[in-house]
Amino acid sequence: MFAPKFDYHKVSSVAEAIQLLSANDGAKFIAGGHSLIPLLKLRLARPTALIDIGGIADLKRITVNSGTVRIGALATHWDIAASHDVERACSMLTQVAGGIGDPQVRNRGTIGGNVVHADPASDWPAVLTALNARFVIQGPGGASRTAAPGDFFLGPLTTNLADNELLTAVEVPSFAANQSSEYAKIAHPASGYAVVGGAVVVTLDGDRCTAASVVVGGLVPAPVKALSVERALTGEILNVENIMAASDQVANDLGGEVIGDFYASAEYRRAMAAVEIRHALFHITGEAHIGSRAVSVLHAVQDVTVESEAIPVFDPSSIADPAPSSQPTESLVSEHQSRKRWWEFWRRS
Ligand SMILES: Cc1cc2nc3c(=O)[nH]c(=O)nc-3n(C[C@H](O)[C@H](O)[C@H](O)COP(=O)(O)OP(=O)(O)OC[C@H]3O[C@@H](n4cnc5c(N)ncnc54)[C@H](O)[C@@H]3O)c2cc1C
Hints:
The protein is α+β, with helices and mostly antiparallel strands. It has three domains: about 5-50, Uridine Diphospho-n-acetylenolpyruvylglucosamine Reductase, domain 2; about 60-175, Uridine Diphospho-n-acetylenolpyruvylglucosamine Reductase, domain 3; about 180-320 and about 340-345, CO dehydrogenase flavoprotein, C-terminal domain (Enolase-like, domain 1, 2-Layer Sandwich). It is about 35% helix and about 20% strand. The chain has helices spanning about 15-25, 35-40, 75-80, 85-90, 90-100, 105-110, 110-115, 125-130, 150, 225-235, 240-250, 265-285, 290-300, 330-345; strands at about 5-10, 30, 50, 60-65, 70, 135-140, 145, 155, 160, 165-175, 180-185, 195-205, 210-215, 225. Helix 10 packs antiparallel against helix 11 and helix 11 (about 240-250) packs antiparallel against helix 12. The longest helix is centred in the C-terminal third of the chain and has 20 residues, at about 265-285. Mean pLDDT is about 85; it is low at about 305-310 and about 320-349. Bound molecules: flavin-adenine dinucleotide (FAD). Flavin-adenine dinucleotide binds near residues 36, 122 and 192.
């Protein structure tokens, strides 16, 4: 479908962008267009005018200073993934940026457009919440404010940005030497969007977790801080047993609004939240996480009791096609199919 008619303005400064937005009722900013253009073509958005902010050079800048990574709203996912300064200061940012969508999306899509669009399946909302980011916002007359993630993300496609405000930057504290992080997601096979994502940042004293920030996304209207998991991890040694027990606590944090759709039911997503959190934690601790994840899937879906000592290391060669048979039994076929599904999870994170 073609987009409805709209006026088009290209601006070169933040002040000009905000002035035009205030003067044009029903106008919208456009940055990389990767979220907005599909909405226009589906006629789910009908702005009277598009204000193209893509040429505002100041908003593309990434700086790392005195313990803060400041990412301009127009930095693309690729800009972030490719920055050595960001990698050194907060490696979770480069890890996540490099896993978004495909090269086209990473080259055009911006961090600002991603968070303002606030799709529950996007990676940045959960990750920036776990990283305790601040959103820097500018309004008319140069007025500036910041918002914490809990105040910024209000629900699906909804933030607390006012109609006449522009997001200028995202600020993230650099990691301390004793902090580790990981983001694990079950990615939608067509887009890479998170079906379920778990973002984990831990502060460590040796093997002991002294602080944890755990957030889930993809399955809830807005990122959810898994406070029960954080409490269960804090003060504990990060061994398999404690990770399994702590990640299960996420069930207490999800609330009643877990999203289900034709790709993955709400029940499935709810079960996978614990799996993604423990998968992220196993990455951090260096456990045999591939095998552990498979066991976690079984544990969550089929309620199989898992002996912590008995978690096997996954051997991909063990997934063989069933031997050809003129009369395959039903059990053989279904076992093979469910194994294939686990394999997809491993490959995608
Ligand atoms: C095929 C595909 C796969 C994808 N896969 C993933 C994925 O795996 N993970 C993931 O997280 N995301 C994914 N995305 C989403 C992608 O990251 C976003 O579409 C992109 O980052 C949005 O940025 P943009 O610059 O294109 O925003 P635009 O589409 O230009 O704008 C989006 C919205 O934000 C507003 N806006 C933009 N910039 C500002 C600003 N600075 N201040 C105020 N308002 C602003 C616009 O008015 C609009 O409402 C995918 C998208 C596609 C199309």
